Structures are given as C-alpha cells and as structure tokens.
Amino acid sequence: MPAGPGGPVRQTEGMSARVRAPELRGRGWLNTGGRDLKLADLRGKIVLLDFWTFCCINCLHVLDELRPLEEKYGDVLVVIGVHSPKFEHEKDADALAAAVERYGVHHPVLDDPELDMWQQYAAKAWPTLSVVDPEGYVVATMAGEGHAEGLARLIEALTADHEAKGTLHRGDGPYVPPAEPDTTLRFPGKAVALDGGNLLVSDSARHSLVELAPDGEKLVRRIGTGARGHADGPAESVTFSEPQGLCLLPEHVAEVAGYDVVVADTVNHLLRGLRLDTGEVVTVAGTGRQWRSTVDDHAHDARSVDLSSPWDVAWYDDKVVIAMAGIHQLWWFDPIRRTAGMYAGTTVEALRDGPLPDVWMAQPSGLSVSTDGARLWIADSETSAVRYVENGVMGTSVGQGLFDFGHVDGPADQALLQHPLGVCALPDGSVLIADTYNGAVRRYDPETNQVATVADGLAEPSDLVVTAEGAVLVVESAAHRLTRLAPGALSAAGASTVDGPRHRAERKPTDVAAGEVTLDVIFTPAPGQKLDETYGPSTRLVVSATPPELLIEGAGTTTDLSRRLVLNGEVAGGVLQVTAQAATCDADVEHAACHLTRQDWGVPVRVVADAATRLPLVLRGLDA
C-alpha cells in the first residue's frame, strides 16, 4: 500500500502500488562537506539506500559489492549509506565517522542512531537495500548480500526508462571526500610478536602490513603498496584489502611451506603467506570469490575453495584455524598438504555450544591458543562472547546471546562484553579480551570464573599481544597505534570491577499468533535472471528459534521458501533465526553466469492472541 513521505514503506506481494520514498532525516551527514541532503536534491538520480551497521560483516560485504557499481554508474547512481546501529557504541557519532573511514565508504552517510529511517523504510535485517527511482519512488527492496548483478541490471533498466522519459539527470553526485590523515598506522587490526622483538601489524585501512621496532612505534618496513588489491609479489608491489589476522607458523612448518606468516586478507577472502626475510607474499588459500555454498566436512584444495572474510588465524591442533567471520564458522588450513575445510559451525548466526560440527557462532573475530596448546580461545563478536574449543567441543565462558551486551564485571555467567574483536591467552591460564566497543581490556580467569576490567578509556582495541619480556601491547585501532599496558595492570590490585550498563538490542518485535503461522520469504529474480535448478533445488530455507521451545514445529532445513511453523502459545516471545538463499542464473544467454543471494535474519517475535498468521520476509522484492 502507498505511504506518504512520513509513513513506512510496506512490502506487498509484487509491490504493485507506487510507493513514494520517505524523506531522509537523521542526526547528521558524513561525506557531504557538511551539507544536509534531501530527496529533492537527488531527484533525477537513481538512489540506492544501504541500511547498514558497522559491526555487521554482511554489511561490510555489501560495501565491497557496491564499489564497482558506484564506479561504473557514478553519473546516474547515488549510494546513500543509512547507518542504523545495533550496539550502543555504534550510536556514537565519532565512532561512526571512524568506521566510515576505516571501511573506505566513499559515498554520503546518514546517521540514523534511533533507527527512524530503518523503521520508515520497514527494514528487518542488516543489511537492507532500497532503490529509489529518479522520480522519488521506491522500486525495489532487498535484504542481505549477493545482489550486485541484479542491481546492475536494475540500474541499467531504470537508466534507459528515465532517459527516455527525460527524468534522468547525469552528472556528479553529492559525495565530498574527507581530508587524508597522516599517521604511521591507520586502523590497525591485529599484531604478532616476531623473533628478535619486532612486531608485525596488519595496517588494515592502509591495506598493508607494517613491521615495527620493539617499542611499537618506530617503522622498520612496510609490506604492501597501500592500495587496495590482491597482487602477489615482493614487499614493494604486493597489495592487500583490509588485512586482519596474523599467524606465525612453527619453524618446522614454515620450512616446508616456504613462508613464515599466514595473513588473513579479509576483504579479498584470501589467506596469504609472508616470507619474513624477503617480504615476498604469495596467495596460499582461497579463490578470491566469497563463499556462497553449502556446508560440508571434506578437505579441499586450498587454492580452489572460496572463503568468506577470514578475520583471524591461529596455529592449533597442528593446523591453522581460521575465524571465518563472514559465515559464522571456524575453518582449518593445512599449509603442508595445502588443503582447507570447515572446522566448526553450521553458518547459523547465534550462540549454541556442543560438538564442533553442530555449534552456532556469530562473526568470530579473534583467536588465541593457551600456553599448553589444549584450548583455543575465541572472540565471538556479534554474541559479545568469549568462547573456547577443547577436545572437539565448543563452550562459552562469557556471553549470553546476540542481543545482550554491556560492561559488567564479576561472575562470568553474569558478566557482559560489547562486541569483542580480540583475545590473548596468558601463561597463567587466564585470557585477556579486547572488549572493542567498550573501549576496554578485560580479563577472564577460569580458576575463579570471574571477569575484571584491566584497562579502559581505549579507542576500539582490536587485539592484544604479549612480548617475549611479558609486556602486553594493545592494538588500539581507532587511535591508530599500539598501546603498552602498565606493568601492574594484570595483577589483582591493578584490575577493577565495573558494574556498568546492561543493554539489550531492542528491535520492535513482530506480533505473531500462537499455533500455525506461515513463514514466506519473498524472492523475485533480478531482471534478466531466472531461478537456477541446474544442480538441484534453487532455494534453501533454514529455521530455528531462541529459546528452542518457542518453535513446536517448523525447525530445520527445506528447499521451499514457504514454511508452516507452529509457535508455542506458552512462550511469550523470542527470536526466529531464519537463513534463506536463492540461486539464479542469467536467462537466455550463452555462458550464463550464476549468482547466489543469501540472508540471515534474527526476527524478534511476540506471541499474542489474534495476531498475524503470516510472517513475510523480503529477500528480494521488485516493483513488478
């Protein structure tokens, strides 16, 4: 149904009614040179609204998917990032400005801290994309990632239509680039101590690796040109794209593999190998394509398998374990056999412990191995949790779920973190936590099962490293530096107990009826595409619930995008976890390309009498 400028966009089957785009309003704008934009300023352009939040790996994938579109269609297309945050820290205007620079966002961004625009455009998932035509009408809505090819076809169709009508205006858009900063590091991600005392740091926003002297400040050398790319070669010509994790291989493994350090080249979806003596870099795992397949437990040739945003790497259980943030799993890589495969997780984004194949994770972003090699510690960022692997089982030490976070010390089952990105195992068996969005370093002691705050007031710490002398350095990412903790910080006297705020990410729940409910995932192939049944069913739907007893029937995996659910009327509400994907291919062309669209939803629901018996989710909807 149509809505006025102040009303929400409502998705209907086929979106047959023309829907006027709601006006753009927020706390402020970035990348516009201080100018506030209105839809009237964008009339004559195709406007793509990208509803994102900077903690979300799927949102970061979409930023990368949009870059070629912005370059190719820059004279007719204006991308507007609408930042609608999940975590409390993401509501901070300075943190948003830092994230816009960190992730190379080269389009205007509207700050939407209270999710007003999110609600106006009826978004239900991060990310959500809405396309507004040159006359100011919403013509497409889509959730998740994998829409780049379909968007290109839609942009070309809209360009032709509105050029013929005389309603298209070509020319530059409203983007104004910020001033270029001058620092040695720019949003460093991870660090590792090298033999001899030097430190190797992933300089993520500068797309390179930096070797620093033991003081953590003096530049020894830079590996990489600083430009975004994926070229192998010597230090002065190699390129990366937002590298993160670093793993120093055992000497006997490095000798056979031919390189010393494994680098998680995150946005390239690759693992790279670095020779420390020469600075030469070679690709060792990944095709460069983002993983969009199904889970299996087979070993694959490492160079033939697709990866998805590898964020950290660690040597554990005689292999490199990969924190595969993009698909909420751990993978493994064998640098001697040159094979790789899935290690833990089902790709469902949530928190569930148990045997490794069956666990649920949410954007694992930091890894560290205990001194005795028995336990692998994990920073599971989207559940604000610290988890571990031991003896083939995953457990959770700190953390309660996708929507619970804060800064609370004390007993581990009550303590809260906020989007931690790094962990560091200490010789005494405890683990330090880079509690990123709280700006703190925390310490979890398994002996006492207590969490304490070691340091705070830091700018988005993302990793920690212990030097050979026992000093602790913090990768203070948003301050663009390494920071040394005070010598007494790790002692009981140096730690403090914080009883800070408790937060729960509250999104308006959808009222649904107890008993039978029909879940419909709406998917319309992009122009020029059709569902692809070449290798079997073209669609897949996975459903689960938190708490599990919310869902009496309907959990599991099917190939139909419509599902009968039975909700428990004795459970007041919870979260439905829904994963949907659809495979398409180009229609009626020789050598047709194939595409996969995928999205994970965590849908808060409230079970009430006389509520809706149908729950629609839009994977891709078009104005037909």
Automatic annotation (TrEMBL):
Instruction: Give the matching Pfam families.
Output: NHL, Thioredoxin_8
Its domain of life reads Bacteria
Q: Which part of the chain is the Thioredoxin domain?
A: 15-160
SUPFAM superfamilies cross-referenced by the UniProt entry: NHL repeat (SSF101898), Thioredoxin-like (SSF52833)
Q: Which InterPro entries does this one have?
A: 6-blade_b-propeller_TolB-like, NHL2_NHL_rpt_dom, NHL_repeat, Thioredoxin-like_fold, Thioredoxin-like_sf, Thioredoxin_domain
Query: Does the record bear DNA damage in its keywords?
Result: no
Q: Where are the NHL repeats?
A: 417-447
Q: Which UniProt keywords apply?
A: Repeat
The name on file for this protein is Redoxin domain-containing protein
